[in-house]
Design goal:
2 copies of one chain form a homodimer. Chain A has 238 residues and is α/β, with parallel strands linked by helices. Chain A contains 11 helices and 6 strands. The interface between A and B is medium-sized, with 22 and 22 residues.
């Protein structure tokens, strides 16, 4: 089987550690503003738990396309009172929403993408909008060939349009493209669109030692990190 | 005035020498296939002359979005007989259409973009589709933060949607973005959308010594090449 021409990447959790990054950003903000003591990792978890329900009206066509900045602000406003932070000023809320543009990558990511880019076209296929991905790439030192994903289709994964418009934008057919993600539902949706799939283990996404989410379908590759994926794709090339 | 946050670039003529590159690709194809002797630079000129009329039905909403690959193939098929090349096989026509994905940059471009990228976000805002820009960037050694332009808006410059969707995708307002082009009409359209403008002289675009097309409105910058533009933007920063 020919190697994939392009690799598409999930970003939140697969490439960047949103939980620890948001917790650190919250702690720094709390220290700077003298906010009440808060379990910022728990707030990050609660915020992320609002994510999928927030996307659903856009996926269902009940709400026009809005970016994650809009959805993140809405869900942050909704959950702050339960965390004793109802007095957080609007500018601080905007700062915390912007922290999703500055998430830190897992340690293997910059070098792993550099190796993979020697042989494949690379693009994010994330629910994060273009501006967020552009800022994240600069922050984390990632180099992409294009920024694809939800904004191109103006709906959210796992809707098939997001994967298919990304493949189409590269001028390719789905079997020529490998979707890389740490999340079984993302890979299953990509596989239903005809893409090849690679699962990457991210056991610390939900906290140190929380454990990875093993794939629920027969993926083409399983790897411990992007360096292992790069080695596996090189080996398959023979 | 604050420096621009992002620079958007016209590509054909501004960054890459389409005329000499297409002529070289045609000559190489003609030699390989034993095609009749042809003035390939004249064919490149005739092909490019079909460009704007081909875009017009898409701009006018009379034709659904199609990529430049489709339009280039249609116009090539139409003009080959007048150049004595009606016998060119379909695979060779497809090769020549694909040569628009492998155009050579002007000598200052790779280093100029590298310097500009130290201080600004950079993206093409071209009528070339994403796949074409991705291939061109790999061929010419260009590094972009995102690939924006016509495909995002599914219409063609100088329609305002192309500039405005590209600015929106970066999460910016038009005055925060500088449009860089060698062509007055492109810059005038961007200025009407509220973008800042930089004109770059490309006197050899239409052949050695053919002369540059000076801007028709009051642009914010005029530069002999991208190195001069990078120096001017650095100087303005003070």
């Amino acid at each position: 089987m020919a190697p994939p021409r392009a690799l598409l990447f999930d970003v939140f959790g697969t490439l960047v550690d949103w939980r620890a990054s948001i917790a650190r950003a919250g702690q720094a903000l709390g220290d700077r503003l003298g906010l009440p003591p808060t379990d910022w990792a728990a707030l990050a978890d609660a915020w992320r738990a609002c994510y999928d329900p927030g996307l659903e009206p856009v996926r269902a066509g009940e709400r026009a396309w809005v970016t994650l900045d809009v959805l993140h602000r809405e869900s942050l406003d909704a959950l702050l009172p339960a965390h004793g932070l109802e007095a957080m000023p609007g500018t601080a809320r905007a700062d915390l929403v912007a922290a999703w543009h500055r998430l830190d990558p897992w340690p293997d990511v910059a070098e792993g993408l550099r190796r993979l880019r020697a042989r494949h076209l690379l693009a994010p296929c994330s629910n994060g909008h273009v501006a967020l991905q552009v800022h994240l790439a600069r922050h984390a030192g990632l180099v992409w060939d294009a920024v694809l994903g939800a904004e191109l289709a103006r709906t959210y994964k796992p809707r098939p349009e997001v994967y298919l418009r990304s493949v189409e934008a590269l001028g390719l057919e789905p079997p020529e493209v490998l979707m890389v993600a740490a999340h079984p539902s993302d890979l299953a949706a990509a596989a239903r669109c005809g893409l090849r799939t690679a699962w990457v283990a991210r056991p610390d996404e939900h906290g140190p030692g929380a454990g990875a989410e093993p794939p629920t379908h027969d993926v083409d590759h399983r790897a411990d990190d992007l360096l292992a994926l790069a080695a596996a794709l090189d080996f398959n090339r023979g």
